[in-house]
Every structure is written in C-alpha cells, then in structure tokens.
Design brief:
By secondary structure, the chain is mainly α. It is built from 11 helices and no strands. Helix 5 (about 85-100) crosses helix 10 (about 180-190).
C-alpha cells in the first residue's frame, strides 16, 4: 500500500508544485490557461499524477482561490490588527504591506478579479474578500476612536484607492510612490505622519 509520504513526493510531484504551476498559469494567461495537461507538461510529470492531489480541475481552482484568500486577504487582516501607537502609524503599516509581495501580491489580486468576470462563483468569493478587507480597515479606524460611519468611509477611501491602483495596473517609480505616502496618510486619516512614524514605515519596507 502506498503511504501519504509517497503521494507527496517523487515522480508524482507534489500538491504545492501543482498549485505553484497553476498560479503561474493564472497570472500569465488567465483561468483558461489553468489546464491539467499543459501543467503536467510544464512540470514534466504524468497527467495522472494530478489525481493524487486533486479530484479534478475544479478542485485545483478552488485551491487556487483558497491560497489567494489566505495570502492577500490574510495580509490585510494581519496588517490592520497589528500594534500601532497612532492611526497614522496603523495606516502606514497597511501601506507598507502593499510594498511586500511576500505579504500581498497585487498581480494575483488582478488575476482573480479578471477571473471573476467569467464566473459568478468567483465574483461572490471576491466580494466576500472585499468585505473582509474593508471590515479589517474599518475596525482599525474604530480602534483609534473614529465613529463607525466615519470609519467606514475612511476604510473605503483607503481600500478603493488601492484596488484602483491594481485594477488600472498603475506604473510609477518607487521614488514617486514613496513621495506621495505622507499626503496619502493625511488624506486617509486626517493628520500627517510624524518623522518618527515615517522612519518606522521605511524600516518595514523590503
């Protein structure tokens, strides 16, 4: 009898390997590019090995969505719930998250949102993720004393600005992007960051 360890390694590849290849296909060509045979050829393993790790293509696609939610939405929840001495510092920590693809991957967000145009099921998952992220930002503002209605609008200002950057595929130099950070913070929370807060922000950047 073949044990679990044998299913995860060797010539059959691994679940993580299939997921990584599927993610790259999604980023490069959209969801229509995520197909079992081309992935098997890329991984140089048998197509049948896929079924050691996933029931079918839908199972793989669900795993891709779960990985996206865990990484990108998880990054929002973690950043918004982290320690900060002030709302400006909290907003800076959230902004810093966007600069680290290890924490938040904008191209993956863009790919999933594009996928949602082809699937009502994925659209629903995207809406759920958006609500979870907005809730995390709103709770962050309320933690620093903002009334619920004001916290909600400020959270939407922060979030929709960032999603706009992703959806428009904005390209700008790091120097220009960083130069705008203090003004963004003041716009988002109503006061500019201090020099000390900006120094701690820079220290968070990769």
């Amino acid at each position: 009898m073949i044990g679990h360890q044998d299913k995860s390694a060797g010539w059959r590849g691994s679940r993580e390997g299939w997921l990584a290849a599927a993610r790259q296909a999604l980023l490069a060509g959209g969801v229509d590019a995520v197909k079992i045979q081309p992935l098997a050829q890329q991984l140089q393993i048998s197509r049948t090995s896929f079924y050691w790790f996933f029931k079918d293509r839908d199972d793989l696609l669900n795993a891709l969505l779960a990985a996206w939610e865990a990484k990108n939405t998880g990054a929002f929840v973690q950043a918004c719930g982290g320690y900060a001495d002030s709302i400006a510092e909290a907003v800076l920590s959230l902004i810093a998250m966007f600069y680290s693809e290890e924490k938040f991957e904008p191209q993956l967000d863009f790919a999933v949102r594009s996928w949602a145009h082809q699937s009502a099921r994925v659209t629903a998952r995207v809406h759920q993720a958006d609500e979870a992220r907005l809730s995390a930002i709103c709770n962050m503002f309320q933690r620093f004393g903002y009334a619920p209605a004001l916290a909600d609008v400020r959270a939407r200002t922060v979030y929709l600005t960032q999603i706009g950057y992703i959806s428009m595929q904005v390209q700008e130099s790091m120097e220009l992007r960083l130069s705008r950070v203090p003004a963004y913070v003041e716009t988002f929370c109503g006061r500019p960051p201090t020099k000390a807060e900006m120094a701690r922000f820079y220290a968070q950047l990769p």
